[in-house]
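thread from #wetlab-drylab

HS: before we spend reagent money on co-crystallization trials with cobalt (II) ion, can we at least see a predicted complex? here's what I'd submit
DV: go for it
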Amino acid sequence: MTILPIRLFPDPILRKKSKEIDNIDLEILEFSNNMLETMQYAKGIGLAAPQVGRLVRLITIQVPECEPLIMFNPYVNKKLGKRMIPEGCLSVPGFTGIVERSISISATYIDKNKGKIQLSATELLSQAIEHEIDHLNGIMYLDHLESHEKLHKTGITPDDIHWHDVAYKVSINKDNATKMDLETEGIIERKIELSKIKSDGSIEEASFDV
Ligand code: CO
């Protein structure tokens, strides 16, 4: 097993779209186990392959008191309801933001035995699956923030990480762009001025990074 380096925002790989996995072979199984170990080592409850530098549709999740999940080619079939909840990300250490997520989802994925699995999820599991699948599409939770004011320093990261203002833009080749791609571009053309973010002790710290 190997602990893999986690890519940090604004690493451009976090903005790329991941490819479907055609063949679940020994190499990708070993990689998925390394992802699981990396996620546990980093004390996260979810990790997506692009966060460790590989653009394939693979996520790992482990919410407290549940077995770890390795999900190949996951997608959400159904979303129900909306709620505002705090969220963090292993690629954005030291910050938490309030985002809108579904109340419950159902998802489909391929497991390590190549079985097609249907899963219904609520609460933290539902949130983690939506967050990780976003990573596979180059979307970060920062894109779901309504405003900078909704992002807060958690104060759990040592001062050695120095944040600059970050302007970012994702360009999509519009020749083959689907309607969803164009909507995505609309979402992620955004400037985040991290230096304007103030600590806010009134916000409950997110206990989990995903
Ligand atoms: Co994340």
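DV: Helices lie at 26-41, 123-136, 179-188.
HS: ok that's useful, forwarding to the group
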